[in-house]
Amino acid sequence: MSATPVTPADVAGPPLARPRRGVRSRIKGWPTSVKVGGVIVGILALAALFAPLIAPYGPNEIDPFALLQSPSSQHLFGTDDAGRDVFSRALYGLRLDIVLCLLVTYVPLPFAVLVGALAGYFGGWVDTVVSRLADIMISFPFIVLVMAIVAIVGPGIEGFLIGVPIAAWALYARLARAEMLIVREQPYMMATTALGYSKTRAILKHGLPNVIRPCLVYSTIDLIGNLILLAGLSYLGFGVQPPTAELGGIIADGQGYLLTAWWIATLPGLVLVLFGVGVGLIGEGISDRGLERGER
Amino acid sequence: MSLLEIESLRIEFPGEDGQLVAVKGVDLAVEAGEVLGLVGESGSGKSLTCRAVMRMVPAPGAISAGSIRFDGADVLSLDTSKLRDFRAHSVGMIYQNPFGSLNPTMRVGAQIAETLKVNRGMKRDAAKAEALALLERVGIEDPEHRYRAYPHELSGGMCQRVMIAIATASSPRLMLADEPTTALDVTTQAQILKLLARMSAEEGMAMLLVSHDFGVIAQACDRVAVMYGGHIVESGPVETIYHEPEHPYTKALLNSVPELDSAGNVQRRAALAGHPPELSDVIPGCVFAPRCEYARPGCEAVSMKLEKVGPAHDSACPVRPFADANSKAKAEGVEA
Questions:
Q1: Is residue B262 predicted with pLDDT exceeding 70?
Q2: Judging by DSSP bridges, how do beta strands B206-211 and B174-178 pair with one another?
């Protein structure tokens, strides 16, 4: 051992609590996957948000003199059989996809989590009713259910907007219920009783924040799933109706030209994949972070 | 009249064949401002007794007989809103696991302020100021800074201090401390016990301190009650119980406490042979008789009734194997 001077900092070690960290140092502590995913999703989301500013052409602008052109500086993703700029259409399509998927994923989520948390907290007949309903929804093939609802309300985004939440709440409710079964036995939930807090306060303020994380992690997977579902429905003709630009619809339109004009289906498809990978990385990062902290 | 009076409390759990009785007729009284220790092995029913005071016996267990009176009012017959009021204002509770007792998703300051807002009707700013004062009072340095900390950023001792701040926020007259120091190291343990004793003295707050550790009890309590197999087997002032235990179980428990000078000694203290009774075991007479070296024929027929054996000293053992030695010790003590 050399005579390295021992500073008080060495002896004291890192300070135990440092709650007032800056935003920058917090981001530094995030897993790489969250950072990478965040950058991907961020760029795509910004591009989609500012589609009207970025897109060089309108999504439905027809140029009869530029049919099926391959990618060039004029048309980054080329043009389709009607002479529409595929890059512009992909941007507008992504915009619509993101908005619709955020809606169907995150609007029903709080309700589903609440229902599940109540079932887990109270148990008994509340739990039985919620759990059996959830079982029924989960055992039903998801796409078939959504397609059946689309068939009832007619093709278009309404079917998607109604159908997905009806089917998707069950999984969130189940996750929240399972988590609540653990959380309600925690000493801090017992403490809410010992402090004379109301059940409402105990569940909403002390229960929900502790059961929602697995649901948020799952929602990132669900978001990708819904994106692909929407693209799939549009591809099948049940979702967004032409000529509205939507990634699945664009891919469906382009598949006839895969051999002669590969870019129409492939490039928007890559955008879809890239977005999905970004969201997936974020989700993985969040769940890893939970593991790191030793929370489970 | 005592602040808290528990009479022939019985707590049962439904079992596969019939009821399992975890607490079998406990009598206990806590005077105002007094610190009473409740000591016993795991499964002796001490935590259940403690929780029963708050009517928080975990389901499917239930209080099947007996009465609990707090300041003359019958706790077992309180309706829901009165019970909430009782829990919020009259009694505070702290637990064994300091990390688990705080909500991990809320800053600790907000958790203290929440109690002040909900149970004392304080406004936001007043609650914050009071919460900071409470943090200071329970001995947390740099309260402004810790106010914004999350529980995982604090050490176990600090979490327990925060818990004490929350439990004492509405100045309860009785504190139920269920193994408050078990999860802490010995130094922190002593600090927490000191803090509890100080709070109790300053506020005139009585305390029921549950522990399996005689050292903790000796440090903090005025009186102690020893529990075994769902019964209280002996109770009395701490010094008396320590120096002149009357019940063989108390004696065995004291004998099993290792001392520092026993290190390296080949003749370690003898551990008590056998196991505490299972809940399903129905033992007629004295529950300790099967493990008791002083057991005599007839012990399985005695009732577990506490009998007076000295001033404020009760024992449930009619055999009193140490009575002679104790009185001799007392006589010598007088001479010396």
A1: no
A2: parallel
Q: Where in chain A are the domains?
A: 94-249
Contact B153 A17 (CB under 8 A): yes
Question: Does the CB of B3 have a partner CB in chain A at under 8 Å?
Answer: no
From the number of C-beta atoms within 10 Å of its C-beta (0-12, 13-18, 19+), residue B228 rates as buried
Where residue A39 falls among pLDDT bands split at 50, 70, 90?
very high
pLDDT tens profile B179-223: 888 888 888 888 888 888 888 888 889 999 998 888 888 888 889
Does the pLDDT value for residue B25 go beyond 80? yes
> Which residue is it, tokens 């994380």?
A213
Flag if A197 and B148 touch (Cβ within 8 Å).
no
ipTM field: 0.80
3-state SS, residue B222: coil
Contact B12, B62 (CB under 8 A): yes
Q: Which residues are bridge partners to B4 per DSSP?
A: B30, B70
Comparing alpha-carbon positions, the chain A residue that sits nearest to B175 is A194
Phi, psi at residue B208, to the nearest 5°? -110, 110
End-to-end Cα spacing for chain A: 40
pLDDT attached to residue B36: 92
Cβ A80 vs Cβ A71: under 8 Å = no
Question: pLDDT tens digits, residue range A229-243?
Answer: 888 888 787 777 777
- Other CB atoms within a 10 A radius of the CB of residue A186 amount to 18
User: Looking at beta carbons, which residues of chain A come within 8 Å of B104?
Assistant: 188, 210, 295
Residue A114 is predicted with a pLDDT of 94
Q: Which amino acid, A275? A: F
* Beta-bridge mates of residue B223: B36, B237
Topology of A94-249 in CATH?
A: MetI-like fold (1.10.3720)
Q: Choose the weakest-confidence range: A24-38, A212-226, A260-274, B160-174.
A: A24-38
Query: What's the start-to-end Cα distance of chain B, in Å?
Result: 37
How distant, in Å, are the alpha carbons of A173, B109, B213, B317 from that of B135?
38, 8, 28, 46
> SS3 string of chain A?
CCCCCCCHHHHHCCCCCCCCCCHHHHHHCCCHHHHHHHHHHHHHHHHHHCHHHHCCCCCCCCCCCCCCCCCCCCCCCCECCCCCEHHHHHHHHHHHHHHHHHHHHHCCHHHHHHHHHHHHHHCHHHHHHHHHHHHHHHHCCHHHHHHHHHHHHCCCHHHHHHHHHHHHHHHHHHHHHHHHHHHCCCHHHHHHHHCCCCHHHHHHHHHHHHHHHHHHHHHHHHHHHHHHHHHHHHHHCCCCCCCCCCHHHHHHHHHHHCCCCCHHHHHHHHHHHHHHHHHHHHHHHHHHHHHHCCCC
Of B310 and B67, the one with more pLDDT? B67
Find all residues with CB under 8 Å of B76, minimum gap 6, and list them.
B55, B63, B67, B68
Q: Nearest-CA distance from B51 to chain A in Å?
A: 9
pLDDT at position A296 is 38
Token pair recorded at residue B187: 């130094």
Distance from CA of B119 to the nearest CA of A (A): 8
* Predicted structure pTM score: 0.77
Q: Which H or E run contains B301? A: none
Integer Cα distance of B143 and B247 in angstroms: 47
Q: Taken in order B188, B189, B191, B192, is the CA torsion positive or negative?
A: positive
Average pLDDT over residues B10-36: 87
